[in-house]
Every structure is written in C-alpha cells, then in structure tokens.
Amino acid sequence: MDLAAYRADRAPRVEAFLEALLPSSEIAPQSLHAAMRHAVLSGGKRLRPLFAMAAAEAVGAAPERALPVAAAVELIHAYSLVHDDLPCMDDDALRRGLPTVHVAYGEAVAVLAGDALQALAFETLANAARGHDAEPVAAALRELARAAGPEGLVGGQVDDLDFAKGGSNEAVESVHRRKTAALFAAAVAGGALLGGADGTAVEALRAFGMEVGIGFQIADDLEDEHEDSPCSSLAALGSEGARARSEELLAGALSRLEAWGGRAEILRELARFAVRRKS
Ligand code: GRG
Questions:
Q1: Which of 216, 224, 222, 226 is nearest to 250 (CA)?
Q2: Are the beta carbons of 266 and 54 closer than 8 angstroms?
Q3: Residues 259 and 39 sit within 8 Å (Cβ to Cβ)
Q4: Counting beta carbons within 10 angstroms of the beta carbon of residue 252, is it exposed (0 to 12), middle (13 to 18) or buried (19 or more)?
Q5: E strand residue ranges, the chain
Q6: Which residues make Cβ contacts (< 8 Å) with residue 105, sequence separation at least 6?
Q7: Using CA of residue 200, residue 202, residue 205, residue 207, what is the dihedral sign?
C-alpha cells in the first residue's frame, strides 16, 4: 500500500473516532462544545495520528489499537493551535482557511476550549486501559504528559516566545525539539506501546519520531520563509543549511527502522512526507 492509499483508508477512521469523542454542540455549554469541535474537526492533515497508527502496525498490531493515542495526540495538537493563535501569543485570525477559535467564539471560550481538549486527550488515552493491559497505557500516558508539559510543548513555546529577546542558533533546535518534535515522538512511541512493543523498540521509535518532528519543523520554517521568526531554522542555518539538516535528520530517523523491514514502510513514507512535504 502506498502513502496515498494508506491515508485514504486510515485518516477517516481517526476522523470518526474524534467525531464520536467530542461532546455534541447541542449539549450545554454549547459554545464550549462548538469551539472544541471547530478546533478539531476543521480539516487537519492528521499527520501525528497516522504516525501513531503506522507505529502500531510496524510492531504487528491492528491500526485500531493505536486510535486512543492517535486521537489523544491530535487533541493536544488542536489545543496547542487554539492557544497559539490567541492574541497574547501569535494573534492569528485564520487557521486551515477558517476563523480561529477565538475569532469565532471569543477569547475566554477559546482558552477554555483548549483546556478542555487537553483534559479530553488524557481521558481518551486512559480509557484505552479498559479491557487491556494497563501498563502500556500508563507508559503512553507518561510519554504524552511529558511531551505536552514543561519539558515539551509548553516549555518549548515559552522559549520560542522568549526568542524575541535573543537566542543562540543552537537553541533553535532545542525549541523545535520540545515545541514540535516531542508530540511526534509521543505519537510514535505511544502507538508502538499500545501495539505491544518492547522497551528497545519503543526507544528506537521514539528517537525516530523526534528526528522526524524536528525535520517537520524545519520544513515548516522553509515554507514560511517570508515570516522570518527569530526562532527559525532559516535564521539559524540559512535555507541551504536548513535543508541539509532536515535531510540529515531524515536519514538518521530512517536508519532507526532497519530492524522492521517491510513492516515499517509506511512509517518511512510518512517520514519522507513530513520532512520533504511531498509523497
Ligand atoms: C500554545 C502550548 C502552546 C504551544 C503552541 C503548536 C504550537 C506550539 C505553535 C503553532 C505554530 C507552529 C509553527 C507549530 C509547529 C508545529 C506545526 C508546524 C504545526 C502545524 O501542524 P500541521 O501541519 O497542522 O500538522 P494541521 O493543520 O495539518 O493539523
């Protein structure tokens, strides 16, 4: 199966799972629920969920096994975008071609919708323990909590905001590791954990996810060439240097998958797509 066929088959399963998880906008508090649905069901690429499912499949499990981690990671991603778009952060009015959540529902509801999405993420993943071995679920929860917290997304975002006051070139990749790549690593490691992988496999796949995630952020910086953020790979390395670094990261990531042979082919394809932005 090629990547296009894989996405066409797996992404709708993630979509249906997310749709069923999110509270109905007919139920009070309607504005909160509508804002949560707007944040999540507005046409994201679902790249992180696809990585989670492909990791479970690479270690021999059915893709459905990874759905709780796939959805949980996507909910954290969605919350981070809602908060990142707020006037006190990036102050964006549009996302995915639609008004951002605070533009559509107001700032207070946007903050609270982000908070609620984060809680729903952890509840969703914790529910995977029902009828299954609880230990891999606890380990996946730890991966996600660490990726979302002060060592991951939130800490990376704070350092990114502080870059306006100045920061070294080396610090750029450290921000990208935490702000962007940690969530990719949690998706891949979490999918592998729910798929029954052992510690050595989880470690290799986490490292793969981290390298792919940094490469993904570099690709994002190269696409946003005009934006000239002080915390960007372009500012740190120049466009040639950034491209070379992303290829180096991709090669490193792919080398971690050697033991899995053909079963990891979709993971390889996803990695190439994330870093090079073409399938
Ligand atoms: C507010 C705690 C907090 C963190 C914000 C997500 C984030 C950190 C900042 C958003 C801006 C940015 C450059 C994020 C890096 C990750 C990134 C490129 C996100 C976009 O991810 P895609 O392309 O988006 O997967 P879709 O829309 O497809 O889901």
A1: 216
A2: yes
A3: no
A4: middle
A5: 94-95, 98-99
A6: 31, 34, 35, 38, 113
A7: negative
180 CA → ligand 1 middle, Å? 7
For residue 77, give the ligand 1 atom closest to its CA: 6
Number of domains present in the structure of the chain = 1
62/67 Cα distance (integer angstroms) = 10
Q: Please give the model's pTM, rounded to 2 decimal places.
A: 0.97
Contact yes or no for 178/153 (Cβ under 8 A): yes
CA of 82 to the centre of ligand 1 (A): 9
- Paired strand residues for 99: 94
What's the CATH number where 243 sits?
1.10.600.10
Does the C-beta of 277 come closer than 6 Å to ligand 1? Answer: no
Q: How far, in Å, are 11, 127, 160, 210 from residue 189 at the CA level? A: 19, 18, 25, 10
Q: Which residue is associated with the tokens 């502080």? A: 162
Binding site membership of 180 for ligand 1 (Cβ less than 6 Å)? yes
Q: Is 81 in the pocket of ligand 1 (CB under 6 A)?
A: yes
CA distance 171 to 190: 27
pLDDT score of 235 = 86
Measure Cα distances from 17 to 68, 95, 132, 263 in Å.
8, 22, 19, 24
For 55-79, write each residue's pLDDT tens digit: 999 999 999 999 999 999 999 999 9
Query: Can you give the residue range of the structural domain that contains 59?
Result: 3-276
List, for the chain, all residue ranges whose pLDDT scores fall below the cut of 50. Answer: none
- Per-residue model confidence (pLDDT) at position 213: 98
- Cα distances from 110 to residues 42, 79, 130, 190, 207, in angstroms, run 15, 9, 31, 28, 33
pLDDT at 167: 83
Residues 6+ apart with CB under 8 A from 95: 42, 81, 85
**What does the chain come to in residues?**
279
